[in-house]
Amino acid sequence: MKRPTAREFDQELLDIYDYYVHGQIDRRGFLERAAKFAVGGLTAVALLEMLSPQYAFAAEVPKEDLRVTSDYLKYPSPDGSGEMRGLFAKPAGAKGKLPGVVVVHENRGLNPYIEDVTRRVALAGFVAFAPDALYPAGGYPGSDDAGRTMQAKLDGRKITEDFVAAVKFLSTHPDGNGMMGVTGFCFGGGMANTLAWRLPGLVKAAVPYYGGQPSAENAAKIKATLLLHYAGLDERVNKGWPAYEAALQAARVEYEAFIYPNVNHGFHNDTTPRYDKAAAELSWSRTIAFFKQKLG
């Protein structure tokens, strides 16, 4: 199966899709606005399918990969949903305790792409843990559209507490050494920023990918070192970056930010046309090197 690329679509259509996946318009709104791009025998529905994730591509480190061991673990979240579950992964045959990285999914639950990313983190030499915010509602439903609907109905405060609890859980896991990092994508990027200020004594390194930014007041609480990845064409998220950078500078937070030119929000997600191989690979190499430097 050939993976479509962003260059095959008009940028306005990619922006409309971004509005759709982030709840700014509904499915009907997407189809109505995408209709003008439905030419040459294509329909708006077909365009939506082409732009949506194809998880056949999300198999860089498949679950059968013998280099990594993984399992679903439950953990307590007393201030959130009570009981939660996530995917835990570590290098096969690892000896000694390893630094930990919590991986936070997008606004649609723990889908195959994020599970694969979690195994990638483990393969790089960490214990990795990816909670599923949808677990209280039955877990990721197998469809991103359904997952987005489910996540939108959940209590946002509880979701935050569930991820706070996940960091605490991994920090005390017997396979970990207590050194903690977090990374996340889209919603997860915003959550990575949140976890950095919510747990300043615990999170040592945070890598948000195209994530929403906290207030200046909360940014001042961050003690972690940050590595921030933004997409050059992502006007929706990038508009919050100048104020965030000013707040980080004022608070003397150590950070490095990269804005990858001519790529879209979601450029790391290798299951959609918005994926950009060069930016994804460069950002990921920077991410792993950063975690190794900051967490050991």
Provide an overview of this structure:
This protein has 296 residues and is an alpha/beta fold. It folds into two domains: 6-51, no CATH class; 65-295, Alpha/Beta hydrolase fold, catalytic domain (Rossmann fold, 3-Layer(aba) Sandwich), CATH 3.40.50.1820. It is 39% helix and 21% strand. It has eleven helices and eight strands. The protein has helices at 11-21, 27-34, 44-51, 112-123, 144-153, 156-171, 187-198, 216-219, 235-238, 241-250, 277-295, and strands at 68-77, 82-91, 98-104, 127-131, 176-185, 203-209, 225-231, 255-260. A hairpin with a 4-residue loop joins strand 1 (68-77) and strand 2 (82-91). The longest helix has 19 residues, at 277-295. The protein is globular and about 60 Å long. The protein starts with 10 loop residues before the first helix and ends with a helix.
